[in-house]
Amino acid sequence: MRIDRIELRQIQLPLVHFFETSFGRTTVRRILLLRAECAGVTGWGEATCGESPLYNYETPETAWHILSDFLIPGTLGRDLAGPGEIASRFKPIRGHNMAKAALENALWDIEAQQKGVALSRLIGGTLKEIPCGVSIGIQNSVEELLDKIQVELSAGYQRIKIKIKPGWDVDVLERVRERFPRIVLSVDANSAYSLADLDHLKSFDRFNLLMIEQPLHWNDIIDHAALQRELKTAICLDESIHDADDARKAIEAGACKIINIKLGRVGGFTSAKQVHDVCRARHVPVWCGGMLESGVGRAHNIAMSTLSGFTLPGDVSASRRYWREDIIDPEVTVSPNGTIRVPQAPGLGYTPSLERIERAAVRKESFA
Ligand code: OSB
Ligand code: MG
After folding, report:
1. Ligand 1: residues within 6 Å at CB?
2. Do 243 and 284 belong to one domain?
3. Residue 196 neighbours by CB under 8 Å, 6+ apart
4. Near ion ligand 2, which residues have CB within 5 Å?
5. What is the pLDDT of residue 21?
6. Fewest beta carbons within 10 Å, which of 52, 89, 263, 326?
7. Domain check: are 101 and 146 in the same one?
8. Within-domain flag for 347
9. pLDDT given for residue 296 in this prediction
10. Residue 219 class from Cβ within 10 Å (0-12 exposed, 13-18 middle, 19+ buried)?
11. Looking at the structure, do residues 54 and 161 belong to the same domain, yes or no?
């Protein structure tokens, strides 16, 4: 495989509803899209960075820099054995996994089209339909949160995850459990607590949560292991897991019982499959996390979610929850049972609309 041309675009897309976590509120997404050409076949990738370096240190601007100054020059015109070679070739570049994933995942899209198979099948996925949950941000009031949960349950979603932070946690959970005593419910703290909050976090056990996601420091494994020893509720790690080795160490240390796999955070499909395999061998369930992706990243997440270890509903949900109009055709829809049917056409199985992408673009550069 030899890549002839790569284009980077930064697009700006307003969310239909703001999304708030313990680290802040997002109203407009700025997303870096990568388009690669290989002998007439086009593949797409998305860098899933936040607008500010709060979830991790990457932003659309750091990804642009790493891609345009290092990853793209190291890729164009070279003979590559396949998309997996991107991961090994750029291993010496430390971190910047979301930039790496944008490039590698576009090459997987190309290879799937060249082989005439669905991307899900190319990466070894078997599920034809994936179970879906939703991630609901911090709201202006508990009433608004309860209304939103009701809307998503009525749409069929199989699991509700709510964002929490100190001051928006136990009182909110009391009200949620009072109204919805039996729903499958998770919380995500995005690192808003420390071990000093141990007794407070232990009090969450009474809410019968499926998991508590990333309660402690964004790079920590050790303190999470100490916390997991004290909690009945399963800890799920998100921010702390960057590759398969992190997953192995976290599981061996007892830092979590579940792992959230995000393609961007771990650097693309090659690394994500390795994380999946480490977890599967140790009987640790995984699920696919989201980063408020556009349709391109969402399509990659759907393919990822078809691997057999993805036994829990992911944060992969319908396009309309995020965008007035998504940038792919058709948009992603969710069935009344809270599932997404996995496309079987070659490649992504969704077609990015170059016209809508160009309309949303605020920056563009081509490399050949
Ligand atoms: O921690 O899972 C997270 C969004 C932005 C940054 C971090 C996270 C999230 C989500 C949203 O939870 C999931 C989605 O709906 O895409
Ligand atoms: Mg998370």
Report:
1. 21, 50, 55, 135, 188, 190, 238, 289-292, 315
2. yes
3. none
4. 188, 213, 238
5. 96
6. 52
7. no
8. no
9. 98
10. exposed
11. no
